[in-house]
Amino acid sequence: MDIAQWRLVVGAAELAPSVHNTQPWRFVVRGEEALEVRADWDRQLQSLDRSGRQLRISCGAAVEYARLSLRAMGRDVRVDVLPVEDDPDLLALLTPAGERGAEPSELELVDAMARRHTDRGTYEPADLSDAQMDEWRNGVAGFGVWAHFVVSADDRVVVAATLSDAEQRQAADPSYVTEISRWTHRQQREDGVVGTPPAWPADRVSDMPLRDFSGRAEHPHPDSGEPPIVERDALLVLGTERDDPAAQIAAGRALAWLLLRITVDGLSGQPLGQALDDIDSRLRLAHDLRVVGHPQFLLRIGRGHSAAQSGRRGIATEVAAGPAPVVES
Predict the structure, then answer these.
(1) Contact, 202 vs 225, CB < 8 A?
(2) Does residue 200 sit in the same domain as residue 144?
(3) Whole-prediction pTM value?
(4) Mean pLDDT, residues 230-239
(5) For labeling, which of 70, 224, 244, 328 is most exposed (least CB within 10 Å)?
(6) Are residues 74 and 14 in the same domain?
(7) If we measure between CA atoms, which residue out of 74, 94, 111 comes closest to residue 10?
(8) Same domain, yes or no, for 274 and 321?
(9) What's the gap between Cα 42 and its chain centre?
């Protein structure tokens, strides 16, 4: 692997999804031989993510994007998660091994990286088949992650109530309001999110309270006098047996795979993070949905229409350190 190839890998990894598009990672190429994925704690959400769980999920997504990029180059890849006990910033090490041609399904995922984006607009029904849901379950299971589809009307009410209660608590916390304001912009920038979501028709609402990026937990209510069309998108929970840093990184890798897979399938997704931002909401969701383990991510899925709005920071510097070239981002 030469520096030009590593720059392609890092460029792909930087397209990964992250909580509020904070991109809380650093990439360091170790002497042309391996790629370090490091936590950038300066980009941690101090109010929303005090434990660093969502930062590690975000970095896990970047790990999977980097791995898939290496596979597209025809390289086998060894992934070591949390490889050094006395280096807490180092979350994963990716080491190219021998040559092995990429599978067509892997190339499809890599091709989808530039198209994948968070769509906060209206969706048409996904109409997921049993075979499609099984494929997604099996795909995330390869990372040690389980997938639970929220299907029944009663369970959807549980999710909606958990989302609403969590967002109301957040809106009452001044530190959350300040933090969400810092990462929300009127126009596209290199990080953060665009605060104005795609416009929804006046007569259409979601049965889920989608996050209000103003921090006020306010949601539109049609007042035309006619009952609105209620959109009920597919809901999917990803979870893990344990809730330690390694499991959170695994959840991020599974999430990255899933978001690319649904993009290949012509679908869109939006995180419903309020239900998982704090431990109380996560425990409540696990209990009320009767799942065994730790919910790590909640996603609405359907056929979206909006274009990408989030920017990316890009590769910041390139440094040659003697015989060991280094790429930092």
Answers:
(1) no
(2) yes
(3) 0.94
(4) 96
(5) 224
(6) yes
(7) 94
(8) no
(9) 19
